Amino acid sequence: MGEIDRSLDDITDAIISASIQIHRTLGPGLLESVYEASLARTLERRGFRAARQISLPFDYEDMLFGDACRIDLLVEERIIVELKSVEKIAPVHGKQVLTYLRLLKLPLGLLINFGEPTLKQGIHRIVNGLAPSASPRLRVNQLG
User: Fold this and answer.
1) How buried is residue 58: exposed, middle or buried, by Cβ count under 10 Å (0-12/13-18/19+)?
2) For 80-134, what is each residue's pLDDT tens digit?
3) 63, 61, 65, 104: which is closest to 81 by C-alpha?
4) Which residues on adjacent β-strands are paired with residue 80?
5) Which pTM does this prediction carry?
6) How far is CA 70 from the centre of its chain?
7) Which among 43, 83, 103, 135 is least buried, having the fewest CB atoms inside 10 angstroms?
8) Residues in CB range of 25: below 8 A, 6 or more apart
């Protein structure tokens, strides 16, 4: 089977749709690892590549940091998904995703908090260098 060229919109729609389905079924309050495994499996069943717990090595001033951070999910090698299961997202969580995006030179990440009563409140889009006029389909709760 050949590679399918999916747009950022299509990938993001699939991630959000799968996340909402999982949240409606399981509800809030479980460990992040449960939501991570469930989301990865759901996306894979829908034909998307979803790699879990990706180590993000980087170097700084001739020092190599091989395992300084881990990405919860990398979908289609294009979108970072950082999952939380907390009462409220802190500003540092959005900054964390933006740092990952900058290190990997990727344009888009999603920060999803499964701890919210409704998942719509818990979905945040983080951009790295995308024009503000990017597709309206991608406009969800944007963090700073």
Assistant:
1) middle
2) 999 999 999 999 999 999 999 998 899 999 999 999 999 999 999 999 986 554 4
3) 104
4) 74, 109
5) 0.84
6) 12
7) 135
8) none
Q: Cα 59 to the chain's mean position, in Å?
A: 23
142: which 2 tokens?
A: 């944007």
Quick check: 110 and 101 in contact, CB under 8 A? no
Instruction: Summarize pLDDT for 26-58 with one digit per residue, the tens.
Output: 999 999 999 999 999 999 999 999 999 999 888
Structure tokens at 25: 């079924």
